[in-house]
C-alpha cells in the first residue's frame, strides 16, 4: 500500500475525535479537556492545510513549524494546568518558540537536499523535560492525584520522546528513498495515531468524570 495513503489514518483519527467529542460531550469538557480538544482540532487543520499545499504543488514543510509552535504552546498550558511551576517552564517555552520562528525565517525550506530543521525535536525535548519535572513534583507531593492525569503525562512524555528521536535525522527522512525511511515514517504514523486516539479517549473520560480539584476543573 502507498505510504501517502496510509498517512490519511492520522487525519481520520483526528476528525473522528473532533467530531465525536463535539457530538457527545464537548459541553461537559472544561479546563484541560478544552485545551486538548483545541489541540486535536488545530492539528487537523494543519494536516489538511499541508495536504492542500501538496495538491497546489506548494512547499508543505512549513507545517512542521506550525505543528511545533502548537505542540509547545499547548503542552505548556496543559502541564501548567496540572500543577507545573511557572518560571522555568515559561522561559523554556519562550526560548523554544523563538527558536522555531527564527529557524522558519532563516532556513531555506525549498532546499530539500540540505534542509535539516531541529525545531520539532527541540520542542519535543522541552515538552519531555517539562513532563518529567511535573512527574517529579507530583512524586514529592503527599496529595493524591488522579490516575488519568498521571497517564496523560506519561503518554505525552513517551510520545514526544519518540517524536524527538524519529525526527532528528529529518534530512535523511525526506531525501533517502529506502525501506528504512519507509519504516520510520510508518512508525511515526502509528505513534501519532495511537497518541491522538488516547487524547480523544482522555477528553471523553474527562468530560464524563469532571470534578473540582485544587487545580480547578481538570
UniProtKB/TrEMBL annotation:
Segments traversing the membrane: 6-24, 36-55, 61-78, 90-107, 119-138, 150-170, 182-204
Assigned keywords, A-Z: Membrane, Plasmid, Transmembrane, Transmembrane helix
Protein name: YhhN-like protein
